[in-house]
Structure to design on (623 residues):
């Protein structure tokens, strides 16, 4: 039946001031809820991205005595097949000690470096190596070429083409490496201690052909890593020497921080919605009283109670719909303004803009449903209204 | 006699416990189909309560009410709403148009309670009624943009749109001047003759009452005088 819809629309139109006020009330509620929600999401995404965006999300390592993983090719292939993994990189990492030339004599220092042999193509996906290369080129396969960090290069005064001597305690041998490039991973501890070469070179240098120390894995959804870890553990199967470590277990404090933030943002959002619901309900209750006469006469003419309440449910729905649309426009404008004017010193936005369409649609739906629910009280009032009260009292 | 309405031993008591007031006492009344009836009585005599009970807007405390031979005092609220929409038209002293709608739209509202789109016949009927009550020039005015007489004539057209068999009117001209009152009654009589609609009209105006087929006077909740002319 279209009549309740027609009447609702006409009621809203005839009291324009009230309609505009309440629509703005809802819109402001929705926009604040959107703004806070999107801001926190953007903040969290950028925080997580900065923390784990360029590192391994799940790492398979060995707990055997020598810490080596052998026969890794089939493992690599299987993990690559696992759903959700994006990059799977084998690496052979060994600590070694820097050897420095003092008075024309090689002296073993106490400065440790981590020599990382990576399957460069896949590792590039994880660490964005070629993007972080500030000078020179990536190492050529199976040579002694390495790339070093910016800080390491400054501290030890090494530039491209120069040699680095290291002592390998396990083999009790000294080796010579050649610098082919300098990287900057934006983390100074990594820039100081990592020397990166390709996997084959590493295997040759450390005389461990066919062996690696870890498999590093990135996944598409970092928050889904526990599930992917489970599937990887299934692949590892009976090999009790191998374990898979999830980034989340190593970043518990970050995650509990994020969790707290999510909960507090959710609380704010819920209270905003509650205040919207209360304001709609109170305005519509007043409107039922204002329209008592009309409802009474409609009932005398034979409108059914359900239709009479539909008038107010429709009003709530329409107000919610208009408020949600206006609120989305306002909320997105707020976010755009915020990311345009609240900038870091380098000109990038303080918090990156992230317009999550699912969240926006959800906010709109919640506003519409909440408004409709808020009109339940006036709808019930209107349903209960006895026409005789109106007729008798004039 | 073909009775459209039958009231049997209708009592109405307001309030409960110690503070009860009986407004109607054992009313027995038959209304003939197609007749034009007037109810007169002093204020507080119970005549409006009687009309509201006949219109199923109010429930009798005891007694039986038959409309078109069907007992209605035990019907459910939705059944009564349907019954009112199909068989009754109401005209009140304070016309009660919906101020948010135009005269034309107000007239169609009882029809829209049952149907979504007006059929050709209904649009024709609405326009016919508008002509009949003489509102052609203001039919697209909002209810608030019309004179009292025009609003009351709109209410009459609205009461007629669903082809009701009974029209109940409670002092339909109570707040109109005597010229307009005269015109409205002539109009109601015309409708009565043209559509054979049964009319039950409460009025204060003796001159009007004298034009009816039957005068019923209510006094202290009882039928005091009942005259057929």
């Amino acid at each position: 039946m279209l009549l309740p819809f027609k009447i609702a629309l006409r009621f809203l139109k005839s009291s324009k001031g009230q309609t505009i006020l309440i629509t703005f009330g809802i819109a402001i509620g929705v926009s604040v809820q959107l703004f806070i929600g999107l801001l926190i999401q953007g903040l969290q995404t950028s925080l997580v991205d900065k923390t784990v965006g360029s590192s391994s999300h799940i790492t398979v390592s060995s707990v055997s005595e020598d810490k080596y993983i052998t026969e890794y090719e089939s493992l690599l292939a299987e993990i690559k097949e696992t759903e959700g993994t994006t990059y799977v990189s084998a690496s052979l990492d060994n600590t070694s000690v820097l050897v420095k030339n003092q008075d024309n004599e090689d002296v073993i220092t106490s400065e440790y470096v981590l020599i990382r042999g990576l399957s460069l193509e896949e590792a590039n996906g994880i660490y964005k190596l070629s993007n972080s290369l500030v000078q020179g080129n990536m190492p050529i396969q199976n040579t002694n070429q390495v790339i070093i960090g910016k800080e390491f290069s400054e501290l030890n005064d090494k530039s491209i083409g120069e040699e680095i001597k290291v002592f390998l305690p396990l083999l009790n041998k000294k080796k010579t490496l050649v610098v082919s490039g300098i990287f900057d991973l934006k983390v100074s501890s990594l820039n100081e201690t990592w020397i990166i070469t390709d996997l084959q070179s590493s295997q040759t240098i450390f005389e461990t052909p066919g062996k690696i120390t870890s498999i590093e894995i990135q996944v598409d959804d970092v928050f889904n890593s526990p599930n992917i870890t489970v599937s990887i553990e299934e692949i590892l199967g009976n090999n009790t020497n191998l374990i898979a470590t999830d980034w989340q277990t190593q970043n518990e404090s970050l995650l509990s921080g994020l969790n707290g933030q999510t909960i507090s943002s959710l609380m704010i959002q819920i209270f905003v919605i509650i205040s919207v619901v209360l304001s709609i309900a109170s305005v519509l209750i007043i409107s039922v009283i204002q329209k008592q006469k009309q409802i009474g006469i409609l009932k005398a003419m034979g409108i059914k109670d359900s239709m009479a309440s539909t008038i107010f449910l429709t009003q709530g729905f329409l107000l919610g719909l208009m408020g949600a649309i206006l609120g989305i426009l306002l909320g997105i404008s707020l976010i755009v303004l915020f990311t345009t004017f609240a900038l870091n010193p380098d000109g990038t936005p303080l918090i990156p803009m992230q317009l999550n369409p699912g969240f926006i649609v959800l906010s709109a739906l919640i506003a519409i449903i909440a408004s409709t629910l808020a009109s339940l009280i006036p709808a019930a009032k209107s349903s209960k209204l006895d026409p005789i009260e109106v007729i008798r009292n004039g | 006699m073909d009775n459209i309405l039958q009231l049997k031993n209708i009592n109405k008591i307001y309030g409960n416990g110690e503070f009860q007031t009986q407004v109607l006492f054992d009313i027995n009344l038959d209304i003939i189909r197609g007749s034009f009836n007037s109810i007169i009585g002093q204020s507080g005599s119970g005549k409006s309560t009687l009309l509201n009970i006949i219109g199923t807007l109010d429930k009798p405390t005891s007694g039986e009410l038959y409309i078109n031979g069907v007992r209605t005092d035990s019907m459910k609220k939705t059944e009564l709403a349907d019954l009112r929409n199909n068989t009754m038209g109401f005209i009140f002293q304070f016309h009660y148009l919906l101020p948010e709608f135009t005269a034309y739209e107000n007239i169609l509202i009882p029809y829209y309670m049952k149907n979504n789109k007006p059929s050709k016949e209904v649009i024709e009927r609405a326009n016919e009624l508008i002509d009949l009550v003489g509102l052609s020039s203001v039919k697209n005015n909002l209810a608030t943009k019309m004179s009292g007489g025009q609003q009351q004539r709109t209410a009459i057209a609205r009461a007629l749109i669903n082809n009701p068999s009974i029209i109940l009117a409670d002092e339909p001209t109570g707040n109109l001047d005597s010229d307009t009152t005269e015109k409205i009654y002539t109009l109601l009589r015309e409708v009565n003759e043209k559509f054979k609609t049964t009319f039950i009209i409460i009025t204060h105006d003796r001159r009007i009452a004298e034009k009816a087929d039957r005068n019923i006077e209510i006094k202290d909740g009882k039928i005091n005088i009942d005259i057929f002319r």
Q: What stands out?
A: Chain B touches chain A through 30 residues (CB under 8 Å).
